[in-house]
Amino acid sequence: MLDPHLAWLENEAIFILREAMAQAQRPVLLFSGGKDSTVLAHLAVRAFHPAPPPVPLLHVDSTWEFNDLLAFRDRFAREHRFELLVHVNEQGRAHGMNPFDHGDDYTTTMRTDALKQALDAGSYDVIFGGARRDEEKSRAKERVFSLRERGHAWNPRQQRPEFWSVYNTRLCRGQSLRVYPLSNWTELDIWRYALLRNIALAPLYFAASRPVVERDGALLVVDDPERMRFLRGEVPTNRHVRFRTLGCWPVTGAVESNAADLAAVTAETMTSRLSEREGRLGDRDSGGGLERQKREGYF
Predict the structure, then answer these.
(1) Which of 158, 186, 245, 249 sits between 20 and 30 A of 269, alpha carbons compared?
(2) Is the dihedral of CA 241, 242, 243, 247 positive or negative?
(3) How much is the pTM?
(4) pLDDT value at position 72?
(5) Which residues pair with 211 in a beta bridge?
(6) Environment class of residue 280 by beta-carbon count within 10 Å: exposed (0-12), middle (13-18) or buried (19+)?
(7) Distance of CA 287 to the CA centre of its chain
(8) Helix (H, G, I), strand (E, B) or coil at 161
(9) End-to-end CA distance of the chain
């Protein structure tokens, strides 16, 4: 049973989902397989039960996803009766874009440009995402209903007021809405909600023995030995690790942990003093940071 705080957050998220769906012509829900998008997809199931979810899942595949995450993504969509759409920037793949050689350009090509390609191809007007305001400072500037201009550009100075949870969903030609029903949730809220609702999450969030190398202070799991670029002297060793956040495996650091189930992870999160995005190496090297990427159309 949910406590009053989580029950309020659940009711608010379901209200936002229904409010946005009532106005949408071509809705889509971005699904990375991470904990936030998984909880959001579960809320969509609850919001429209017993009918199948009326919104497809869209996964932007960077081609450097964790294998366990891809398996979880496919299983989740099948079990919950979602239509699953997967998009890859084929031009970027053909040019061999990768996080080892291309850094920020890789993120732009395989994440930002790929997302915009998929949204344009589907002519989506309402795009649901699992972003939370507590994750990162640029996300704290987001409205629940985030207006995007032609070309998916985001201008934080031109967002609409949302007093008393009244949302303006009107769109002009070329505009779209990014809708964040989890805006007011925290990382701990996500874990507690998953625990109390018994939501299955990607296995990477739970501690297990995995082959890792230590690089720049981060523990990188060697998910694909054939594609891993080992530095001189690097030899993978098995360590008990898990992830707090999931991204492309060559640039996402794990944390040492023995938390192997939802209860243990929730307890561990309550005592952590580090940001969950500390493990994202891409955040450290992104120049203008996530805000610049978001202005260009990144989710």
Answers:
(1) 249
(2) positive
(3) 0.91
(4) 98
(5) 238
(6) buried
(7) 21
(8) coil
(9) 32
**Nearest-5° angle of CA 233, CA 234, CA 240?**
145
User: Which tokens hold the place of 108?
Assistant: 């732009």
* Rounded Cα distance, 132 and 243, in Å: 18
Half-sphere exposure of 275 (CA within 13 A, CB side): 13
CB 211 within 8 A of CB 241: no
* CA separation for the pair 222, 199 (Å, rounded): 27
Residues, the chain? 299
CB contact at 8 A, 293 and 286: yes
Q: What is the pLDDT of residue 136?
A: 75
In angstroms, the CA 148 to CA 172 distance is: 10
pLDDT < 70: residue spans in the chain: 139, 273, 275-299
Q: Domains plus CATH for the chain?
A: 4-190+288-295 (3.40.50.620), 202-283 (no CATH)
